[in-house]
Amino acid sequence: MSQPAFTTDLTRQPPRSPYVRLGGYVLLPRIIDKARAALAGKLGEYSDDPRGMNAHFFRFTGIDPQAFKQQVATGAGDWDILQWVQAHANPSRDLWEIKAWSEYHMQRPVDSDAETLLNFAEAMKRRHPEREDIKTRFDWLDFDDYCTFGGKP
Description:
By secondary structure, the protein is mainly α. The chain is about 50% helix and about 5% strand. The chain has two domains: about 1-105, no CATH class; about 110-153, no CATH class. The protein has a two-stranded antiparallel sheet. The protein has seven helices and two strands; from the N terminus they run ββααααααα.
């Protein structure tokens, strides 16, 4: 397998925001960044585990996470990976479905189970208790990335 075309060193910078879209899909650029970093041994504190947030993308597209990672390992650029995703999505998705799925995830609050809410509240209390603008899971990921790499809350 060749080195990924655009390796991201996640020990030095965060992956792209979950809000960034590729082909209408939120999360996809972030998943690509984490896969490239994992292949290069530069994942840092991040995880490219196909569970968690990544699982939402893989379930929606029906893409096998290992097949996806093999495609990234070819050194393909973002556009080529998107073309591969579109060709291998099962079921194939219309643009309106991708848009609706992405919009849902952009607005998705932190999960409502007690453990997740407690972890979220404790993390926010540690990071910046006065912040009330962190409402969605994507807001939290962006905020966590920012703070992890030296940003001031």
